[in-house]
Structure formats: C-alpha cells, structure tokens
Amino acid sequence: MQHDPAPGLRVLEDRLHEALERLQEPGTAWVPPMAAPGGGVVLDVAILGAGMAGLAAGFALKREGVSRVTLFDPAPEGSEGPWATYARMRTLRSPKQLAGPALGLDDLTFRAWFEAQHGAAAWEALGKIPTGMWMDYLRWYRRVAGLDVRSGVGVARIVPEGALFRLALSDGGVAFARHVVLATGRDGLGGPRLLPGFLPEWRGRFWAHSADAIDFAALAGRHVVVVGAGASAFDNAAAALEAGCRRLTMLLRRAALPRVNSGKSMEGRGFWHGWHALPAEWRWRLMLSVERRQTPPPHESVRRVAAHANAMLLTGAGVQGVARAGDALVLETPRGPVRAEFVILGTGFLQDAALRPELAAVAGEIRLWRDAYVPPPDEADAALGLNPWLDEGFAFTEREPGRAPHLARLHCFNFAATLSHGKVTGDVPAISVGAQRLARAICTRLLAADIAAHAARHAAFNEPEITGDEWPGVVL
Ligand SMILES: Cc1cc2nc3c(=O)[nH]c(=O)nc-3n(C[C@H](O)[C@H](O)[C@H](O)COP(=O)(O)OP(=O)(O)OC[C@H]3O[C@@H](n4cnc5c(N)ncnc54)[C@H](O)[C@@H]3O)c2cc1C
User: Fold this and answer.
1) Is any ligand 1 atom within 6 A of the Cβ of residue 180?
2) Distance (Å, rounded) from C-alpha 68 to C-alpha 66?
3) Hey, which bits of 197-319 come out as E strands?
4) What is the full per-residue pLDDT of the chain (476 aa) written as tens digits?
5) Treating both helix axes as pointing N-terminal to C-terminal, what angle do 7-22 and 110-118 enclose, rounded to 10 degrees?
6) Whose CA is closest to 71, among 141, 151, 146?
7) Can you name the residues that pair with 225 across neighbouring β-strands?
8) Is residue 186 in contact with ligand 1, taking CB distance under 6 Å?
9) Ordered domains of the chain (ranges, CATH)
10) Of ligand 1's atoms, which has the minimum distance to the CA of residue 232?
11) 451, 461 contact by CB (below 8 A)
C-alpha cells in the first residue's frame, strides 16, 4: 500500500518514533533464534488475524523485543475485521475518545491520528467515529507499528509438533511458530449462531447471517425479515431499507427491546485488571447476567430503521420453524406465520472450538468452562459452558492434565476469552490491557523455555568493559 502521509500525519509519526526512541523501544531482541524443520527460521509468535486485536498484540510483542512475529490474515490488505465488509452501521458504538489499541502511547490514539489531519476544532465537532474512518485508522496503525503482516494468507490448520506448532497456510505454504495467538475476532472460536431449519443450500438465496456478504441491491422490492434485535440486526435492517426493500419486519423473541446496556455497569480499570483473578462463580454469574439482560442496539441504529414507514417490529415473535413456500420462506412464530422473501439472521455468534477447522488437531484437548465449573442449576447455560477455560496468559488449558502441554503456547486472544479474562479482548476500550498482558505472558514463557540457552550464552559471554589500561601502573 502506498505510503504518502498528509503533512500533519508526518509530524505525528515523527513524534511517535521519537517517543519510542526515548522509551528505548522496541527493546533489544532477546529471544534466541531456532531453525525450522527443513530450514528457515521459526517464528517466536504467529498471530492469526490482523484486525485490531492482532495488531495490538503484534505491536505489544515487538515493543518487548520479541522480534520474529508474523501476522496472518486471509483478508486483503486493509480489509481485516468487519469494518470494510459486514459492519453496516454508520458509526462505531463506542465514544470517540477511547484509547483503544494505543498501548499507552498518546500519539498512537485515534484522537491523535484524527487531529493530526483535521485539527482540534474538527475533533470537537466529530460525533461518533464513522466506521470507514476507524478502518483507515487501523490501516495507519499497522503501518506505523511496522508489523510483518501476510495479507491474503490465512492459517488453515495448527498442528503441535514438539516445541513448535506447524501452521498449514491457505496459500499452500507452511510456517513454524513457538507460540500461536488466535486474534480471530468475534467468531474466532466458533461461528455465526444459526437457527435450525435454515438449510445451507438456501443460504444466499433465501437467507443470510448478518455477517455474510449480502447483495442489498437485490433486496429492492422484496419483503425482508430480520431475526433478532441487537445492533447488527438493526444495522442490517437499515441497510435493507435504504436499498429499497418493499417491507421490513424485525422479529423479536422478547416482549420488548432491552433498554439498558448492563455491561456498562462494569466499566473501570479494576474490571480490566482483576476479572481473571475473580472466583469462577462471580465471573460466570456476572457474564450470564449480562447475557440474560441482553444488550440494546444503539439508539442511532433504531432511529435509522424507524425513519422508514415500511419498517415494523414484531415482538414476542421468536422463530419456531421455517419452511420453503415457492420463492419465499414462511417463518412460524407465536404471532403467526410470517412470509419472507429474504431473511437475515441477526442472531450473533457462538463460541465452540469444535467449529474451527484450524483447531481440528487440538479442539478436543481444550478444557472448557463446563469441564472446570458447575454453576448452580438456575445459572446453568450450555452456550456459556463452551467458552474455553484460559490461564493467566490467555492460553488454553488441558482437559486432561499432562496430555497437551503445547496448549500453554496457544493463546486465545479473541471474544471467547471474555468469560476468563473480562472485556480485554475484542472491544475497543481495553484492548491494550489485554495485548500487554498477552505479550508479557509470552515473554515469561519464552524466557523459561530458553533458560538453558540463555545460561549457556551467559557462560560464554566475554565482552570486556574493563580493558586493563584504565589504571596506569596497576595490573587489573
Ligand atoms: C459490526 C460490528 C460492530 C462493532 N462495533 C464496535 C464498537 O463500536 N465498539 C467496540 O468497542 N467494539 C465494536 N465491535 C467489536 C470489536 O471492536 C470488533 O469485533 C473488532 O473487529 C474486534 O477486533 P479483532 O481484531 O478482535 O477481530 P477482527 O477485527 O474481526 O479481526 C479478526 C481477523 O482474524 C482473521 N482470521 C480469522 N480466521 C483466521 C485464520 N484462520 N487465520 C488468519 N486470520 C484469520 C479475520 O480475517 C479477521 O481479519 C464491533 C463488532 C462488529 C462485528
């Protein structure tokens, strides 16, 4: 990608590089190199995903002097994550001032980037961050962080091989890495939550998940039904309405939209730093409560849909069944049948490592919350139980102790980490906290693994600082 920053950005980038120099960062490279089977160099860390989390993790590692780090992402360069594809909202939900992936460097914040180009007055006038602008910021972040990203190349399979992982790449290549980080996003340890009866062969023609590529222009003149009422459901409904659909019906299981974003009551740095050390019962109870209370859509998204007279919201109308009727689907609901010419499932995502092909070799070894914690009967929740039980460094743990020690080098830095670590992966506010915790844990484990090599290097170290001529006449 061409690099010709605006003059303001050039000044910012110079300042950022000076700050890093003053901090003596990136630190000295200290991890001994290793030869890969068949030649080449082993990566200290391979990161799957070059979205916000992958970039923050990569830069946090680089700053700590872990130098052989490569990010892989099947997305074309500059289109990682949802922002340029299925994020159909106009702006981010988050307030603009969040420090996000800046890792404690004020010149790396969205605000610094924005003001360097548009000035302080424009910052004051800016409401929420337009989605495309956030993607532009991440593109800039990636460039100034100087990360090694292999765009267009995904990791198809992760196979433990002694002290390494063998990574089968989507372009047919192979890479070896000592640690692997899954920075794979919202569905990074699972997939879209689909409803029974929505046949795969109908996908794209009669229905789509909200994260699919959808040809909205083709929905013009049709009756579109959106199932769900979260942020993505509303944003997809708005996109269908704006593309000229004839009628838009939103089906909501509940009697009313949730109004309160209960997760916001748990903001504050104590939650970021201390969540993973809380007893399991508190973590489970609080996360379950947030799920049960549900998160309302942003009011901007509701207004965007409500602006259309041909939109309606049907409450108490959870989908109970679906059948094909000619060129349409008929959805059974407690409010009666609803005929849809296209259905968009705004049903979110679920965590289930068994759904991820790249994890096929290890998924069965991973300890899940359901293996580690039994909640009281009124707090039982099968989906929550599928979340991985992670250690303090975001690494997977073994279902059977001693059977899969390589899992301590396989780190889950995506949304599935939330139950174990709190909201320090995925969302914008505390991604830096998560990335720095991850980087330090990897440093700790690399040092421990290499301690004999470091000791040998220490024994052989012979770089004199006293040369013998400092004190004339005295033998030193
Ligand atoms: C529509 C939408 C709106 C959101 N709005 C907000 C918001 O306003 N505020 C907020 O705080 N959060 C928001 N979020 C949540 C969060 O900020 C985003 O999901 C964000 O993209 C998370 O960054 P990430 O790096 O974890 O994942 P992503 O940005 O999704 O990046 C993951 C990357 O992993 C890659 N990948 C997947 N599998 C592999 C593989 N096998 N090998 C290599 N690469 C792989 C993918 O191609 C992808 O590029 C939103 C999420 C969505 C979906």
Assistant:
1) no
2) 6
3) 207-209, 223-227, 247-251, 311-314
4) 445 667 889 999 999 999 999 999 999 999 999 999 988 999 999 999 999 999 999 999 999 999 999 999 999 999 999 999 999 999 999 999 999 999 999 999 999 999 999 999 999 999 999 999 999 999 999 999 999 999 999 999 999 999 999 999 999 999 999 999 999 999 999 999 999 999 999 999 999 999 999 999 999 999 999 999 999 999 999 999 999 999 999 999 999 999 999 999 998 999 999 999 999 999 999 999 999 999 999 999 999 999 999 999 999 999 999 999 999 999 999 999 999 999 999 999 999 999 999 999 999 999 999 999 999 999 999 999 999 999 999 999 999 999 999 999 999 999 999 999 999 998 999 999 999 999 999 999 999 999 999 999 999 999 999 999 999 999 88
5) 140
6) 151
7) 249, 343
8) yes
9) 7-190+351-454 (3.50.50.60), 194-259+296-347 (3.50.50.60)
10) 1
11) no
**How far is it, in rounded angstroms, from Cα 441 to Cα 446?**
9
Q: Which of 157, 186, 189 to mutate to test the pocket of ligand 1 (most atoms within 8 A of CB)?
A: 186
**CA contacts within 13 A on the Cβ side of 469:** 0
Q: Report whether 399 contacts 367 (CB < 8 A).
A: yes
Q: Is 94 in the pocket of ligand 1 (CB under 6 A)?
A: yes
CA–centroid distance, 425 to ligand 1, in Å, is: 10
Cα–Cα distances (Å) from 436 to 393, 440, 442, in that order, read: 10, 6, 10
**Residue 72 CA, closest ligand 1 atom number:** 43
Encoding tokens for residue 21? 């120099």
Cα gap 371→349, rounded to integer Å: 21
Cα–Cα distance measured from residue 115 to residue 127, given in angstroms and rounded to the nearest whole number: 14
DSSP notation for 21-76? HHTT-SPPP-SPP-BPTTSSB-EEEEEE--SHHHHHHHHHHHHTT---EEEEESSP
- pTM for this model (two decimals): 0.96
